[in-house]
Structure of DNA-binding transcriptional regulator NtrC:
Amino acid sequence: MADGETRLLMLIDDEPVQSRLVGALAAREGWRTLVAESAEEALAKLDTPEGRRLGAVLLDQWVPGDDACNLIREIKARRPTLPVLMITASTSPLLAVEAMRAGATDYLIKPVAAERLLLALRSATRPEPPRFELQPLAEKLVGTLDFDTMVGTAPPFRTALAKAATAARGHAHVLVEGETGTGKEMLLRAVHSSSPRAKLEMRAVPIGGTSAGSIESLLFGHEKGAFPGAFNRQVGLFESCDGGTLILDEIDRLDPLIQVRLAEVLETGIVRPTGSQHGFRIDIRILAASDRPLAPLVEAGEFSADLYGLLNAAHIHLPPLRERAGDIPALTRFFLSRIGQQPGLRHHSIADSGLHLLEAYHWPGNVRQLQAVLFRAAVFSEQEALTAESFPQLSELLGDMEDRTESRQRGLGVMLYTDDGNLRPLEDIEADVIRLAIGHYRGRMTEVARRLGIGRSTLYRKLSELGIDNAA
Protein backbone atom coordinates (compact mmCIF):
# COMPACT_ATOMS: atom_id res chain seq x y z
CA MET A 1 0.00 0.00 0.00
CA ALA A 2 1.41 3.36 -0.87
CA ASP A 3 2.19 5.79 1.89
CA GLY A 4 -0.70 8.13 2.58
CA GLU A 5 -3.28 5.87 0.95
CA THR A 6 -6.45 5.50 2.97
CA ARG A 7 -6.73 2.10 4.64
CA LEU A 8 -10.06 0.33 4.73
CA LEU A 9 -11.46 -1.23 7.91
CA MET A 10 -14.59 -3.39 7.92
CA LEU A 11 -16.52 -3.04 11.15
CA ILE A 12 -19.08 -5.79 11.82
CA ASP A 13 -21.43 -4.09 14.26
CA ASP A 14 -25.15 -3.39 14.43
CA GLU A 15 -24.91 -0.52 16.95
CA PRO A 16 -24.89 2.83 15.07
CA VAL A 17 -23.46 4.77 18.03
CA GLN A 18 -20.52 2.42 18.48
CA SER A 19 -19.97 2.29 14.73
CA ARG A 20 -19.67 6.07 14.55
CA LEU A 21 -17.32 6.13 17.53
CA VAL A 22 -15.05 3.42 16.13
CA GLY A 23 -15.10 5.06 12.71
CA ALA A 24 -14.05 8.40 14.20
CA LEU A 25 -11.24 6.80 16.19
CA ALA A 26 -9.95 4.79 13.23
CA ALA A 27 -10.03 7.91 11.06
CA ARG A 28 -7.34 9.43 13.29
CA GLU A 29 -4.87 6.97 11.79
CA GLY A 30 -6.03 7.13 8.21
CA TRP A 31 -8.68 4.38 8.22
CA ARG A 32 -11.97 4.58 6.37
CA THR A 33 -14.62 2.37 7.93
CA LEU A 34 -16.94 0.08 5.99
CA VAL A 35 -19.80 -1.08 8.26
CA ALA A 36 -21.56 -4.45 8.01
CA GLU A 37 -24.51 -4.98 10.34
CA SER A 38 -24.61 -8.79 10.11
CA ALA A 39 -22.36 -11.77 9.46
CA GLU A 40 -24.05 -12.38 6.12
CA GLU A 41 -23.51 -8.80 5.00
CA ALA A 42 -19.86 -8.97 6.07
CA LEU A 43 -19.17 -12.13 4.08
CA ALA A 44 -20.92 -10.67 1.03
CA LYS A 45 -18.82 -7.50 1.22
CA LEU A 46 -15.59 -9.52 1.28
CA ASP A 47 -16.09 -10.32 -2.41
CA THR A 48 -16.78 -6.74 -3.50
CA PRO A 49 -14.06 -4.46 -4.93
CA GLU A 50 -13.95 -2.62 -1.59
CA GLY A 51 -13.83 -5.89 0.29
CA ARG A 52 -10.77 -7.00 -1.65
CA ARG A 53 -8.96 -3.85 -0.48
CA LEU A 54 -9.65 -4.39 3.22
CA GLY A 55 -6.73 -3.86 5.58
CA ALA A 56 -8.42 -5.29 8.71
CA VAL A 57 -11.73 -6.52 10.14
CA LEU A 58 -13.09 -5.50 13.54
CA LEU A 59 -15.86 -7.82 14.72
CA ASP A 60 -18.24 -7.12 17.60
CA GLN A 61 -18.86 -10.57 19.05
CA TRP A 62 -22.44 -9.59 19.90
CA VAL A 63 -23.44 -9.53 16.20
CA PRO A 64 -22.88 -13.23 15.38
CA GLY A 65 -23.18 -14.27 19.06
CA ASP A 66 -22.10 -17.85 19.68
CA ASP A 67 -21.14 -18.13 16.01
CA ALA A 68 -18.44 -15.45 16.30
CA CYS A 69 -15.59 -17.96 16.07
CA ASN A 70 -17.23 -19.63 13.06
CA LEU A 71 -17.42 -16.25 11.36
CA ILE A 72 -13.74 -15.64 12.07
CA ARG A 73 -12.88 -19.05 10.55
CA GLU A 74 -14.91 -18.25 7.46
CA ILE A 75 -13.24 -14.87 7.00
CA LYS A 76 -9.78 -16.40 7.46
CA ALA A 77 -10.63 -19.23 5.03
CA ARG A 78 -11.49 -16.68 2.34
CA ARG A 79 -8.76 -14.17 3.24
CA PRO A 80 -5.99 -15.95 5.23
CA THR A 81 -3.76 -12.89 5.61
CA LEU A 82 -6.51 -10.44 6.61
CA PRO A 83 -6.17 -9.39 10.30
CA VAL A 84 -9.37 -10.02 12.28
CA LEU A 85 -9.88 -8.35 15.66
CA MET A 86 -12.76 -9.27 17.96
CA ILE A 87 -14.30 -6.93 20.50
CA THR A 88 -16.54 -8.34 23.24
CA ALA A 89 -18.01 -7.62 26.64
CA SER A 90 -17.08 -11.13 27.79
CA THR A 91 -14.06 -11.59 30.06
CA SER A 92 -14.03 -15.35 29.50
CA PRO A 93 -10.51 -16.67 28.84
CA LEU A 94 -12.15 -19.61 27.05
CA LEU A 95 -13.67 -17.28 24.46
CA ALA A 96 -10.27 -15.62 24.02
CA VAL A 97 -8.67 -19.01 23.41
CA GLU A 98 -11.37 -20.07 20.95
CA ALA A 99 -11.12 -16.77 19.08
CA MET A 100 -7.34 -17.09 18.77
CA ARG A 101 -7.57 -20.68 17.55
CA ALA A 102 -10.20 -19.60 15.03
CA GLY A 103 -7.70 -17.09 13.62
CA ALA A 104 -8.32 -13.83 15.52
CA THR A 105 -5.32 -11.52 15.55
CA ASP A 106 -6.43 -9.67 18.66
CA TYR A 107 -9.15 -9.79 21.28
CA LEU A 108 -10.42 -6.62 23.00
CA ILE A 109 -12.65 -6.38 26.05
CA LYS A 110 -15.26 -3.62 26.37
CA PRO A 111 -15.03 -0.85 27.27
CA VAL A 112 -12.01 -0.42 25.02
CA ALA A 113 -9.91 2.71 25.50
CA ALA A 114 -9.23 4.64 22.33
CA GLU A 115 -5.46 4.12 22.52
CA ARG A 116 -5.91 0.38 23.08
CA LEU A 117 -8.02 0.09 19.92
CA LEU A 118 -5.59 2.12 17.83
CA LEU A 119 -2.64 0.10 19.17
CA ALA A 120 -4.44 -3.11 18.20
CA LEU A 121 -4.99 -1.85 14.65
CA ARG A 122 -1.37 -0.72 14.40
CA SER A 123 -0.02 -4.01 15.69
CA ALA A 124 -2.27 -6.11 13.46
CA THR A 125 -1.39 -4.29 10.25
CA ARG A 126 2.29 -3.40 10.59
CA PRO A 127 4.32 -4.91 7.74
CA GLU A 128 7.29 -6.02 9.83
CA PRO A 129 7.15 -8.93 12.32
CA PRO A 130 5.25 -7.76 15.41
CA ARG A 131 7.65 -6.83 18.16
CA PHE A 132 4.92 -7.04 20.77
CA GLU A 133 4.08 -10.65 19.98
CA LEU A 134 0.47 -10.98 21.10
CA GLN A 135 0.04 -8.08 23.44
CA PRO A 136 -3.68 -8.88 23.16
CA LEU A 137 -4.43 -11.69 25.54
CA ALA A 138 -2.37 -10.47 28.48
CA GLU A 139 -5.38 -8.59 29.78
CA LYS A 140 -7.45 -11.77 30.02
CA LEU A 141 -5.78 -13.03 33.20
CA VAL A 142 -6.99 -11.73 36.55
CA GLY A 143 -4.38 -9.43 38.08
CA THR A 144 -2.39 -10.41 41.15
CA LEU A 145 -3.52 -8.58 44.27
CA ASP A 146 -1.06 -9.95 46.82
CA PHE A 147 2.54 -8.87 47.43
CA ASP A 148 3.52 -12.48 48.20
CA THR A 149 2.62 -13.62 44.69
CA MET A 150 4.49 -10.87 42.88
CA VAL A 151 7.38 -12.79 41.37
CA GLY A 152 10.96 -11.55 41.30
CA THR A 153 14.17 -11.51 43.31
CA ALA A 154 16.10 -8.76 41.50
CA PRO A 155 17.19 -6.13 44.08
CA PRO A 156 15.51 -3.12 42.35
CA PHE A 157 12.25 -5.04 42.14
CA ARG A 158 12.38 -6.21 45.77
CA THR A 159 13.16 -2.63 46.82
CA ALA A 160 10.05 -1.44 44.99
CA LEU A 161 7.92 -4.12 46.67
CA ALA A 162 9.31 -3.24 50.10
CA LYS A 163 8.49 0.44 49.59
CA ALA A 164 5.01 -0.45 48.36
CA ALA A 165 4.35 -2.75 51.32
CA THR A 166 5.41 0.02 53.70
CA ALA A 167 3.24 2.58 51.88
CA ALA A 168 0.26 0.22 51.98
CA ARG A 169 0.10 0.41 55.78
CA GLY A 170 -0.31 4.19 55.73
CA HIS A 171 -2.82 6.65 54.31
CA ALA A 172 -0.57 8.84 52.16
CA HIS A 173 -0.97 9.07 48.40
CA VAL A 174 1.34 6.85 46.35
CA LEU A 175 3.09 7.43 43.02
CA VAL A 176 4.51 4.50 41.01
CA GLU A 177 6.63 5.24 37.95
CA GLY A 178 7.83 2.77 35.37
CA GLU A 179 7.63 1.83 31.72
CA THR A 180 4.45 0.46 30.17
CA GLY A 181 3.93 -3.17 31.10
CA THR A 182 6.08 -3.24 34.24
CA GLY A 183 3.07 -3.96 36.47
CA LYS A 184 2.35 -0.54 37.97
CA GLU A 185 -1.42 -0.95 38.23
CA MET A 186 -1.02 -4.47 39.62
CA LEU A 187 1.32 -3.14 42.31
CA LEU A 188 -1.11 -0.36 43.20
CA ARG A 189 -3.95 -2.86 43.50
CA ALA A 190 -1.75 -4.86 45.87
CA VAL A 191 -1.16 -1.66 47.87
CA HIS A 192 -4.91 -1.13 48.16
CA SER A 193 -5.56 -4.77 49.09
CA SER A 194 -3.01 -4.54 51.91
CA SER A 195 -4.11 -1.11 53.14
CA PRO A 196 -6.47 -0.06 55.96
CA ARG A 197 -8.95 0.87 53.21
CA ALA A 198 -8.94 -2.59 51.63
CA LYS A 199 -12.60 -3.29 52.41
CA LEU A 200 -13.78 0.11 51.21
CA GLU A 201 -14.57 1.25 47.66
CA MET A 202 -11.78 1.19 45.06
CA ARG A 203 -11.98 2.33 41.44
CA ALA A 204 -9.33 2.39 38.73
CA VAL A 205 -9.41 5.19 36.15
CA PRO A 206 -7.45 4.89 32.87
CA ILE A 207 -6.44 8.45 31.99
CA GLY A 208 -4.84 7.70 28.63
CA GLY A 209 -7.18 7.65 25.65
CA THR A 210 -10.05 9.32 27.57
CA SER A 211 -11.08 12.89 26.81
CA ALA A 212 -10.44 15.62 29.37
CA GLY A 213 -14.16 16.36 29.61
CA SER A 214 -15.01 12.74 30.35
CA ILE A 215 -12.25 12.46 32.97
CA GLU A 216 -13.41 15.68 34.64
CA SER A 217 -17.01 14.49 34.95
CA LEU A 218 -15.90 11.02 35.99
CA LEU A 219 -13.74 12.33 38.83
CA PHE A 220 -15.59 15.39 40.07
CA GLY A 221 -19.13 14.80 38.78
CA HIS A 222 -21.40 17.48 37.36
CA GLU A 223 -24.80 19.00 37.92
CA LYS A 224 -27.68 18.83 35.46
CA GLY A 225 -27.28 21.57 32.86
CA ALA A 226 -23.67 22.30 33.85
CA PHE A 227 -22.69 22.23 30.17
CA PRO A 228 -24.33 21.34 26.84
CA GLY A 229 -25.23 17.66 26.94
CA ALA A 230 -25.35 17.42 30.75
CA PHE A 231 -28.95 16.19 30.80
CA ASN A 232 -28.66 14.58 34.24
CA ARG A 233 -26.62 14.97 37.39
CA GLN A 234 -23.53 12.70 37.48
CA VAL A 235 -22.01 11.58 40.76
CA GLY A 236 -18.22 11.77 40.56
CA LEU A 237 -15.83 9.12 41.82
CA PHE A 238 -14.61 11.41 44.60
CA GLU A 239 -18.11 11.30 46.00
CA SER A 240 -18.92 7.64 45.34
CA CYS A 241 -15.50 6.44 46.61
CA ASP A 242 -15.43 8.69 49.68
CA GLY A 243 -13.36 6.90 52.31
CA GLY A 244 -11.84 4.58 49.74
CA THR A 245 -9.19 4.58 47.02
CA LEU A 246 -8.81 5.86 43.47
CA ILE A 247 -6.17 4.38 41.16
CA LEU A 248 -5.26 6.88 38.45
CA ASP A 249 -3.35 5.14 35.66
CA GLU A 250 -1.20 7.16 33.21
CA ILE A 251 -1.54 10.29 35.33
CA ASP A 252 1.26 11.86 33.28
CA ARG A 253 -1.35 12.25 30.52
CA LEU A 254 -3.85 14.15 32.68
CA ASP A 255 -5.01 17.47 31.22
CA PRO A 256 -3.16 20.43 32.86
CA LEU A 257 -6.38 22.14 33.97
CA ILE A 258 -7.60 18.96 35.63
CA GLN A 259 -4.18 18.60 37.31
CA VAL A 260 -4.75 21.96 38.97
CA ARG A 261 -8.26 21.04 40.04
CA LEU A 262 -7.13 17.65 41.38
CA ALA A 263 -4.32 19.26 43.38
CA GLU A 264 -6.83 21.66 44.95
CA VAL A 265 -9.14 18.81 45.96
CA LEU A 266 -6.30 16.83 47.52
CA GLU A 267 -4.98 19.92 49.32
CA THR A 268 -8.33 21.04 50.77
CA GLY A 269 -10.21 17.75 50.96
CA ILE A 270 -13.21 19.49 49.38
CA VAL A 271 -14.66 18.61 45.97
CA ARG A 272 -17.17 20.68 44.04
CA PRO A 273 -18.94 19.04 41.07
CA THR A 274 -18.90 21.02 37.83
CA GLY A 275 -21.81 23.47 37.83
CA SER A 276 -22.42 23.17 41.57
CA GLN A 277 -22.45 26.19 43.89
CA HIS A 278 -21.37 24.15 46.88
CA GLY A 279 -18.67 21.63 47.64
CA PHE A 280 -18.46 18.86 50.19
CA ARG A 281 -15.67 17.29 52.20
CA ILE A 282 -14.22 13.94 51.13
CA ASP A 283 -11.54 11.56 52.38
CA ILE A 284 -9.90 9.67 49.57
CA ARG A 285 -6.53 8.08 48.83
CA ILE A 286 -4.93 8.45 45.41
CA LEU A 287 -2.69 5.71 44.04
CA ALA A 288 -1.19 7.05 40.81
CA ALA A 289 0.80 5.41 38.04
CA SER A 290 2.94 7.17 35.44
CA ASP A 291 4.70 5.75 32.38
CA ARG A 292 7.15 8.68 32.44
CA PRO A 293 9.18 10.18 35.31
CA LEU A 294 7.18 13.18 36.50
CA ALA A 295 10.06 15.26 37.90
CA PRO A 296 11.38 16.23 34.43
CA LEU A 297 7.81 17.04 33.34
CA VAL A 298 7.44 19.33 36.36
CA GLU A 299 10.72 21.07 35.49
CA ALA A 300 9.52 21.52 31.90
CA GLY A 301 6.22 23.00 33.10
CA GLU A 302 4.26 20.08 31.68
CA PHE A 303 2.99 18.73 35.01
CA SER A 304 1.67 20.53 38.08
CA ALA A 305 4.34 20.95 40.75
CA ASP A 306 1.63 21.13 43.42
CA LEU A 307 0.03 17.87 42.31
CA TYR A 308 3.43 16.18 42.04
CA GLY A 309 4.28 17.24 45.58
CA LEU A 310 1.01 15.84 46.92
CA LEU A 311 1.32 12.51 45.10
CA ASN A 312 5.01 12.07 45.87
CA ALA A 313 4.59 11.19 49.55
CA ALA A 314 5.45 7.60 48.65
CA HIS A 315 7.48 7.40 45.42
CA ILE A 316 8.18 3.97 43.90
CA HIS A 317 10.05 3.07 40.72
CA LEU A 318 9.34 -0.27 39.01
CA PRO A 319 12.33 -1.44 36.94
CA PRO A 320 11.85 -2.66 33.35
CA LEU A 321 12.15 -6.39 32.71
CA ARG A 322 15.48 -5.97 30.90
CA GLU A 323 16.96 -4.77 34.21
CA ARG A 324 15.72 -7.86 36.05
CA ALA A 325 16.33 -10.49 33.38
CA GLY A 326 17.28 -13.02 36.04
CA ASP A 327 13.60 -13.08 37.05
CA ILE A 328 12.47 -14.34 33.62
CA PRO A 329 12.66 -18.09 34.50
CA ALA A 330 10.56 -17.64 37.66
CA LEU A 331 8.11 -15.30 35.93
CA THR A 332 7.76 -17.74 33.04
CA ARG A 333 6.88 -20.65 35.28
CA PHE A 334 4.52 -18.50 37.33
CA PHE A 335 2.62 -17.30 34.25
CA LEU A 336 2.48 -20.78 32.74
CA SER A 337 0.99 -22.09 35.98
CA ARG A 338 -1.72 -19.39 35.90
CA ILE A 339 -2.36 -19.84 32.19
CA GLY A 340 -2.77 -23.58 32.70
CA GLN A 341 -5.64 -22.87 35.11
CA GLN A 342 -7.65 -21.06 32.43
CA PRO A 343 -10.59 -22.86 30.78
CA GLY A 344 -9.64 -24.44 27.48
CA LEU A 345 -5.91 -24.46 28.21
CA ARG A 346 -3.55 -27.08 29.60
CA HIS A 347 -0.54 -26.74 31.86
CA HIS A 348 2.73 -26.29 30.00
CA SER A 349 6.31 -26.48 31.19
CA ILE A 350 9.16 -24.65 29.50
CA ALA A 351 12.06 -26.40 27.77
CA ASP A 352 15.53 -24.94 28.02
CA SER A 353 15.58 -23.91 24.36
CA GLY A 354 12.38 -21.90 24.90
CA LEU A 355 13.59 -20.33 28.11
CA HIS A 356 16.91 -19.33 26.56
CA LEU A 357 14.99 -17.58 23.79
CA LEU A 358 12.84 -15.68 26.28
CA GLU A 359 15.92 -14.65 28.26
CA ALA A 360 17.68 -13.34 25.15
CA TYR A 361 14.88 -10.92 24.18
CA HIS A 362 14.93 -7.33 25.49
CA TRP A 363 11.15 -7.16 26.20
CA PRO A 364 10.16 -3.58 25.29
CA GLY A 365 6.66 -4.41 26.56
CA ASN A 366 8.06 -5.73 29.85
CA VAL A 367 6.25 -8.25 32.08
CA ARG A 368 2.90 -7.71 30.35
CA GLN A 369 4.46 -8.62 27.02
CA LEU A 370 6.14 -11.74 28.45
CA GLN A 371 2.79 -12.91 29.84
CA ALA A 372 1.12 -12.26 26.49
CA VAL A 373 3.76 -14.18 24.54
CA LEU A 374 3.40 -17.15 26.86
CA PHE A 375 -0.39 -17.04 26.51
CA ARG A 376 -0.17 -17.19 22.72
CA ALA A 377 2.32 -20.06 22.84
CA ALA A 378 0.08 -21.98 25.26
CA VAL A 379 -2.95 -21.45 23.00
CA PHE A 380 -1.30 -23.04 19.98
CA SER A 381 1.19 -25.55 21.41
CA GLU A 382 0.22 -29.23 21.45
CA GLN A 383 3.37 -30.27 23.34
CA GLU A 384 3.62 -30.37 27.12
CA ALA A 385 6.88 -28.39 27.07
CA LEU A 386 7.18 -25.09 25.21
CA THR A 387 10.35 -25.01 23.12
CA ALA A 388 12.02 -22.35 20.96
CA GLU A 389 9.72 -23.48 18.14
CA SER A 390 6.73 -22.40 20.27
CA PHE A 391 7.80 -18.75 19.84
CA PRO A 392 8.22 -18.33 16.05
CA GLN A 393 8.02 -14.56 16.05
CA LEU A 394 10.69 -14.20 18.73
CA SER A 395 12.86 -16.71 16.89
CA GLU A 396 12.52 -14.64 13.72
CA LEU A 397 13.43 -11.45 15.55
CA LEU A 398 16.44 -12.91 17.32
CA GLY A 399 17.80 -15.17 14.57
CA ASP A 400 19.51 -18.48 15.16
CA MET A 401 21.21 -17.44 18.42
CA GLU A 402 23.69 -20.29 18.46
CA ASP A 403 25.35 -19.13 21.68
CA ARG A 404 22.82 -18.88 24.50
CA THR A 405 25.01 -20.03 27.38
CA GLU A 406 24.78 -16.66 29.13
CA SER A 407 21.10 -17.14 29.92
CA ARG A 408 21.81 -20.49 31.55
CA GLN A 409 24.43 -18.96 33.82
CA ARG A 410 22.17 -16.01 34.60
CA GLY A 411 19.10 -17.75 35.88
CA LEU A 412 18.40 -21.33 34.84
CA GLY A 413 21.39 -23.19 36.27
CA VAL A 414 20.25 -26.72 35.46
CA MET A 415 18.81 -27.84 32.15
CA LEU A 416 15.72 -29.99 32.64
CA TYR A 417 14.73 -30.64 29.04
CA THR A 418 16.38 -31.75 25.85
CA ASP A 419 15.94 -29.65 22.70
CA ASP A 420 13.02 -31.82 21.58
CA GLY A 421 11.11 -30.94 24.77
CA ASN A 422 11.62 -34.26 26.59
CA LEU A 423 12.96 -34.49 30.13
CA ARG A 424 16.64 -35.36 30.57
CA PRO A 425 17.49 -38.54 32.53
CA LEU A 426 17.28 -38.08 36.30
CA GLU A 427 20.94 -39.00 36.88
CA ASP A 428 22.05 -36.33 34.39
CA ILE A 429 19.95 -33.70 36.18
CA GLU A 430 21.26 -34.89 39.56
CA ALA A 431 24.85 -34.66 38.34
CA ASP A 432 24.30 -31.09 37.16
CA VAL A 433 22.75 -30.12 40.51
CA ILE A 434 25.76 -31.50 42.38
CA ARG A 435 28.21 -29.76 40.05
CA LEU A 436 26.27 -26.53 40.47
CA ALA A 437 26.37 -26.87 44.27
CA ILE A 438 30.10 -27.62 44.29
CA GLY A 439 30.79 -24.54 42.20
CA HIS A 440 28.39 -22.34 44.16
CA TYR A 441 29.93 -23.28 47.53
CA ARG A 442 33.48 -23.24 46.13
CA GLY A 443 34.25 -26.88 46.80
CA ARG A 444 33.35 -26.80 50.51
CA MET A 445 31.98 -30.33 50.54
CA THR A 446 30.52 -30.20 54.05
CA GLU A 447 28.46 -27.15 53.04
CA VAL A 448 27.51 -28.78 49.72
CA ALA A 449 26.23 -31.89 51.54
CA ARG A 450 24.33 -29.79 54.09
CA ARG A 451 22.65 -27.65 51.42
CA LEU A 452 21.70 -30.73 49.39
CA GLY A 453 20.26 -32.36 52.51
CA ILE A 454 22.50 -35.43 52.39
CA GLY A 455 25.45 -36.75 54.42
CA ARG A 456 29.07 -36.31 53.32
CA SER A 457 29.46 -40.07 52.76
CA THR A 458 26.36 -40.07 50.53
CA LEU A 459 27.72 -37.10 48.61
CA TYR A 460 31.08 -38.79 47.96
CA ARG A 461 29.30 -41.99 46.91
CA LYS A 462 27.24 -40.02 44.37
CA LEU A 463 30.36 -38.30 43.09
CA SER A 464 31.86 -41.69 42.40
CA GLU A 465 28.71 -43.14 40.84
CA LEU A 466 28.14 -40.13 38.59
CA GLY A 467 31.80 -39.71 37.65
CA ILE A 468 32.03 -36.17 39.03
CA ASP A 469 35.41 -34.65 39.81
CA ASN A 470 35.53 -33.19 43.35
CA ALA A 471 36.93 -29.99 41.92
CA ALA A 472 34.08 -29.59 39.39
In short: Confidence is low (pLDDT under 50) at residues 128-140, 401-412. The longest strand covers residues 54-60. The longest helix spans residues 366-380.
